[in-house]
Amino acid sequence: CSSDLTAGDRVDVVRTGSFALEVSGLDESLARLTDAVKAAGGYVASSSRVRDAANPSLVVTYRVPAAAFDGVLAAVRSEGTVLSEQIDSYEVTMQLVDLEARLKSLRASESAYLDLMKRASSVADVLAVQTELTRVRADIESYDAQRAALADQVAMATITVQLSTPASPVADATKDFDLGREIGAAVANLIAVGRGAIVLALNGVVVLLPIVVVGALAGGLIGRAAGPIAGFAGRALGVAGRRRTSRRR
Fold first, then answer.
1. Would you say residue 206 has pLDDT above 70?
2. H helix or E strand, kind and range, residue 83
3. Model pTM?
């Protein structure tokens, strides 16, 4: 990418790819993909592995020359069953053109300050020019680092691949199964049921027992009161009967 070019003369594009593949063997597929990337002039930027006995997997990030991007994508797709795929491209032409223009202007300022430094006749002038020269050089380093990083993304595309193996039916059935946890849950349920039964029994004792006692006491009182009342009623009825008999005579 030359700073003499204008935005209309060039197209700078950053390209990235992201895949999730299901493969028969992690290490074998990793070796084949890495060989294909290296053959295209690329390299492994990073990798990580999940050592899960039930579902092992690994993630590897490749950097490949932009010209070889499509060829490497084809190699990735052919390595296994593609579970997911995402390809992104975005243009950064104007950003690069702007950074290169800024750098061109700053380097011109740097040259001018260097000429002033040679003609400075006093310590004050030298210090003033040195201060401006330091600021300009700091800006040059900052913009040059940004330009270099962006140009590297354009020149070398990024491809991230996640590899995993098919899960077996047994692994699926036992996934997240913890015997100790299940036993603990069963014991907790048993305790909860037993506690419920105890609470119910206590409620029966506390609530029903007073009702029974009060009922029994009330029944006894009523029985004791009913005896005299019944006797009195009987005697009263007997007297009334004798009076009616004597009148008829």
1. no
2. strand 81-91
3. 0.62
